[in-house]
From TrEMBL, chain B:
<keyword id="KW-0547">Nucleotide-binding</keyword>
<dbReference type="InterPro" id="IPR003439">
    <property type="entry name" value="ABC_transporter-like_ATP-bd"/>
</dbReference>
<dbReference type="InterPro" id="IPR003593">
    <property type="entry name" value="AAA+_ATPase"/>
</dbReference>
<feature type="domain" description="ABC transporter">
    <location>
        <begin position="303"/>
        <end position="552"/>
    </location>
</feature>
<dbReference type="InterPro" id="IPR013563">
    <property type="entry name" value="Oligopep_ABC_C"/>
</dbReference>
<dbReference type="Pfam" id="PF08352">
    <property type="entry name" value="oligo_HPY"/>
</dbReference>
<dbReference type="InterPro" id="IPR027417">
    <property type="entry name" value="P-loop_NTPase"/>
</dbReference>
<feature type="domain" description="ABC transporter">
    <location>
        <begin position="4"/>
        <end position="252"/>
    </location>
</feature>
<dbReference type="GO" id="GO:0055085">
    <property type="term" value="P:transmembrane transport"/>
</dbReference>
<protein>
    <submittedName>
        <fullName>ABC transporter ATP-binding protein</fullName>
    </submittedName>
</protein>
<keyword id="KW-0813">Transport</keyword>
<dbReference type="GO" id="GO:0015833">
    <property type="term" value="P:peptide transport"/>
</dbReference>
<dbReference type="GO" id="GO:0005886">
    <property type="term" value="C:plasma membrane"/>
</dbReference>
<dbReference type="InterPro" id="IPR050319">
    <property type="entry name" value="ABC_transp_ATP-bind"/>
</dbReference>
<dbReference type="GO" id="GO:0016887">
    <property type="term" value="F:ATP hydrolysis activity"/>
</dbReference>
<dbReference type="GO" id="GO:0005524">
    <property type="term" value="F:ATP binding"/>
</dbReference>
<dbReference type="InterPro" id="IPR017871">
    <property type="entry name" value="ABC_transporter-like_CS"/>
</dbReference>
């Protein structure tokens, strides 16, 4: 599959560029602290809200901290939250979706109607509510956002499972007396993996946006720890003094989310055998 | 009228052009029915698409010409081609349900087809559509005009398709497997209809099929294709009495024909030089380690059904009260150990519901299923587990019944893993042994199902069914999706394995000739009831029930045997 992805990437520039951007962002998330040219927490009251200069390539923030260094380490908590949330949503959402499609009627009613109810609220609203009760931090944000995206995964897993369960090999498994666990993990799960992988990429993008939104409102990552959303929120107050302060994190955030969405979109085409061009 | 000269078609692949059709020549004269026969993958459908100018984007015509009344179709612009289609050349597809648009009524679709090519008013077109439906002998044409495709049966849909095809009095009709998806009795009606229209309208018909029986019934001349090449062209009479090419001879031999029961069916083999020939393989001898043949005389039947019933509750319309639909109605029969019971019936007669009830994928409403004398009809899922070892099933569709994400060794070992039998080493040895038994190379174990052909996949399914050495194997239309020659191989295999593993078969099929070939006893099912039940020889020699007789008459048979039967 990796070979296929690379072959397709070569023929599609947008996909290629997105993959590169994504790789760079992940590299930043892992090695940001080493890459940072200066201490991202060092306060310098004499150089507040400056523009680009030889010393501070992207300028400084309201406390005179180096913007480039803060941007480099600011992606890490966001990424941790996004990936953690996606993992939580993916595991529980997929299992619930499978149970909703394959389980007994009352169970499936319970699961799928709860999913419908949860989907009828905008996630940011529920996130605000949940974050209000809990202490902010990477872990709690990941859990809250993860739970919020469980219904999305459940929906995808549900419809994919419904398709798979109509196939004859499911009947064959039952005729052999297979246990429910075996049916779920060897017959259903491998066959619904491709839509779930696509959903996972899209959820990472959505979780990044949601975390950034919460941090923007001051309910996410707690200062002095930076995150891009939080930096945009702070920079809003200094638009007049240093317009580039708000532009850099916004630009990076938009690029990252765009890249993930493009990759997820193309991944769907690659993984869906019906759209596969030979 | 239609002349195909030296037509070659190739598929574009990453490794360059892969030829699918090589140098095909044939002509169709006005009023003639030309049969194009071959197995799947022989290039017959791609030939017909090439003739219509409907090739898929990854196929290209590499040589040759297709002349319709002297005009080369391949050199026409798309606009000119569109005019020619429908007016001169019309097409009937294999799956009538899928080729009609589900969201328009049948009447609208016929009217649209008429208006595309004729400059008349809509009311005139409607009147014409109604006439056409009468012409194709649809009961209640006015209602059919208002019906959506899903409200009609497969045979009725095919009639609508035929009505659309003849709507503009085309000179040539290309029918691609027009009856493959239909029951024998419906098939007979549709073939009669095609024949009648051919005489009445005077259109030439190119009939593409894998079924020699269909060719025998309606075609005037036959072109036999194999691996993209024309093997033989002859009049139907000549082909069946005196086939010249080895392949045509082999193909005719491998058909299980009604009334000509042999122990083994001949299969088509290809030797190293590429020559095709027909071989009647010797039955395999029972291996010594299998032990002596168990004495089954006078013992209880392995499986006995007593008054088995299974109903569905259906609502005729959303607001009405549910009505009971007896899918299986008081069915009783018995199968002695090491014999085969053939269960025949048309689609919708309840034979699949019956098979699912016997293996307890569904719960029967009443009646008994005695397996080795014990009633399993009311057992719970956990009480059923020991019996799942004894009863195995081979499903109809070899493409659907194997999990595409598992390797062959995982698939074949699955029943052993489920009951927790043996360690991985022992399971591996058993898988290898089973692959030998069903005639697959051992290297197959590490491959995935999509790497195999339909016949090979059915072998994998058979190997899986045998993994726990069951005593009863239910074959639900197990060979229906396969080509004639592959079908012969699988049927031979099933017979060999019956001897080798002491198997008892419940063999479900709609194909009477296959059932006659494999069965010791036969049960004929109609609308949920068994209408006739008895030894196979008796039923096929002297059917008592009118329905059985009708089924037997509807099967297209190849002349000689049929004449003999009439004389008896």
């Amino acid at each position: 599959m990796t070979a296929r992805v690379l072959r397709i990437a070569r023929s599609q520039p947008a996909f290629m560029v997105s993959l590169t951007v994504l790789a760079a962002v992940i590299f930043m998330a892992i090695f940001g602290a080493w890459l940072a040219p200066q201490d991202p927490f060092a306060i310098n009251p004499s150089a507040v809200n400056q523009g680009s200069s030889a010393q501070h390539w992207l300028g400084t923030d309201e406390f005179g901290r180096d913007l480039l260094s803060r941007l480099l380490i600011g992606i890490q908590p966001t990424m941790l939250v996004a990936i953690g949330a996606t993992a939580i949503a993916g595991v529980f959402g997929s299992l619930l979706g499978i149970a909703g499609a394959y389980g007994r009627p009352w169970l499936s009613f319970l699961i799928m109607r709860s999913v419908d109810i949860m989907l009828s609220f905008p996630p940011i609203l529920l996130a605000l509510l949940a974050v209000g009760f809990w202490e902010s931090g990477v872990l709690s944000l990941a859990v809250v956002i993860g739970v919020l995206y469980i219904p999305h995964f459940a929906r995808v897993a549900h419809s994919a499972t419904l398709q798979v369960t109509r196939q004859e090999f499911m009947e064959a498994e039952r005729a052999m007396g297979a246990s429910v666990r075996r049916v779920v993990f060897t017959a259903i799960l491998p066959n619904i993996l491709s839509p779930l992988v696509v959903q996972a990429t899209l959820t990472v993008a959505a979780a990044i946006l949601l975390e950034s939104g919460l941090s923007f409102l001051g309910l996410g990552i707690v200062p002095p720890e930076p995150s891009w959303g939080q930096m945009i929120g702070t920079a809003r107050g200094y638009l007049a003094q240093n317009p580039m302060y708000v532009i850099w994190p916004s630009l990076l955030l938009a690029l990252t989310v765009l890249a993930i969405n493009v990759v997820g979109d193309r991944l769907r085409d690659i993984l869906d055998p019906r759209l596969r061009e030979e | 009228m239609l002349e195909v000269r030296n037509l070659s078609i190739a598929f574009k692949t990453s490794a360059g052009l892969k030829p699918a059709v090589r140098g095909i020549d044939f002509t169709i004269n006005p009023g003639e029915i030309l049969g194009l026969v071959g197995e799947s993958g022989s290039g017959k459908t791609i030939t017909s698409l090439g003739v219509m100018g409907l090739l898929p984007p990854n196929a290209v015509v590499t040589a040759g010409e297709v002349l319709v009344d002297g005009v080369d179709m391949l050199k026409l612009s798309p606009a000119e081609l569109r005019k020619l289609r429908g007016r001169h050349v019309a097409m009937i597809f294999q799956d009538p349900m899928a080729s009609l648009d589900p969201i328009f009524t049948c009447g609208d679709q016929i009217v649209e087809a008429i208006l595309l090519h004729e400059n008349i008013s809509k009311t005139q077109a409607r009147r014409k559509a109604l006439e056409l439906l009468e012409k194709v002998h649809i009961p209640d044409p006015a209602r059919t005009m208002r019906s959506y495709p899903h409200e009609l049966s497969g045979g009725q849909c095919q009639r609508v398709m035929i009505a659309m095809a003849v709507s503009c009095k085309p000179r040539i009709i290309i029918a691609d497997e027009p009856t493959t998806a239909l029951d024998v009795t419906v098939q007979k009606q549709v073939l009669d209809l095609l024949r009648g229209l051919n005489q009445e309208v005077g259109a030439a018909i190119l009939l593409i099929t894998h079924d020699l029986g269909v060719i025998y019934e309606v075609a005037d001349r036959v072109v036999v294709m194999y691996a993209g090449e024309k093997m033989e062209e002859a009049t139907t009479q000549d082909l069946f009495t005196n086939p010249k090419s080895d392949y045509a001879k082999a193909l005719i031999d491998s058909m299980p024909a009604l009334g000509s029961k042999h122990g083994r069916l001949p299969v088509i083999e290809r030797d190293d030089a590429g020559n095709v020939r027909s071989v009647r393989p010797e039955p395999r001898i029972r291996p010594a380690q299998a032990g002596p043949v168990p004495d089954s005389a006078g013992r209880v039947p392995l499986l006995e059904l007593r008054e088995l019933c299974k109903s569905y509750w259906v609502k005729p319309s959303p607001l009405s009260t549910p009505v009971e639909m007896r899918a299986v109605d008081k069915v009783s029969f018995a199968i002695a150990p090491r014999t085969t019971l053939g269960l025949v019936g048309e689609s919708g007669c309840g034979k699949t519901t019956l098979s699912r009830a016997v293996i307890r994928l569904s719960n029967p409403d009443s009646g008994q299923i005695l397996f080795k004398g014990k009633d399993i009809a009311k057992l719970s899922e956990s009480e059923m587990l020991p019996f799942r070892r004894e009863i195995a099933m081979v499903f109809q569709n070899p493409y659907g019944s194997l999990n595409p994400r598992q390797t062959v060794s995982d698939l074949v070992a699955a029943p052993m893993i489920i009951v927790g039998e043996g360690d991985s080493g022992e399971r591996g040895r058993r898988v290898a042994h089973l692959l030998d038994a069903v005639g697959l190379p051992r290297s197959a174990a590490s491959k995935y199902p999509h790497e195999f052909s339909g016949g090979q996949r059915q072998r994998i399914a058979v190997a899986r069914a045998l993994a726990l050495k069951p005593s009863l194997v239910i074959c639900d239309e197990a060979v229906s999706a396969l080509d004639v020659s592959v079908q012969a191989q699988v049927l031979n295999l099933l017979k060999d394995l019956q001897v080798e593993f002491d198997l008892t078969y419940l063999f479900i099929s709609h194909d009477l000739s296959v059932v006659e070939h494999v069965s010791d006893t036969v049960a004929v099912m109609q609308k949920g009831r068994i209408v006739e039940y008895g030894p196979a020889d008796g039923i096929f020699a002297a059917p008592k029930d009118p329905y059985t007789r009708m089924l037997l008459d509807a099967v297209p048979t190849i002349g000689v045997e049929r004449a003999e039967r009439g004389a008896l």
